[in-house]
Amino acid sequence: MTLAEGADGAVPHHHATSTELFYILDGKARVLAGEEIVTLEAGDVAAVPPLTPHAFAAAPGHTADLLIVVAPGIERFEYFRLLDRLRRGEATLDELLASQDLYDNHFLDSPAWTRDRQPH
Questions:
Q1: Domain tally for the chain?
Q2: DSSP label at residue 90
Q3: Residue 120 predicted with pLDDT over 90
Q4: In contact, 2 and 8? CB cutoff 8 Å
Q5: Is 96 inside any structural domain?
Q6: CATH code of the domain in which 45 resides
Q7: What pLDDT score was predicted for residue 112?
């Protein structure tokens, strides 16, 4: 995944059954894991276990190229199509929220992430 300068990758969420692995190919990314937020650079790896709140974004002033692995994997192609339809205004937030169990992608609030994403 390629993120533009300072762009969000995913809002805070957790997976009930999957670990998510982030490998930074280039640039810098901010990653939330639980309540800890770290900056990762090219060559760094972070693993987020099931049920752990997490989010990611390109670090302010930087782009980021990431390889993301979710294991064990589940069929998520329709989830990403739903996100694209939401982006284009062809789906609603309610549809996305209704799909959380189906795609094991459970959205949540993270005050730490909200504070970190505020312009400084």
A1: 1
A2: S
A3: no
A4: no
A5: no
A6: 2.60.120.10
A7: 96
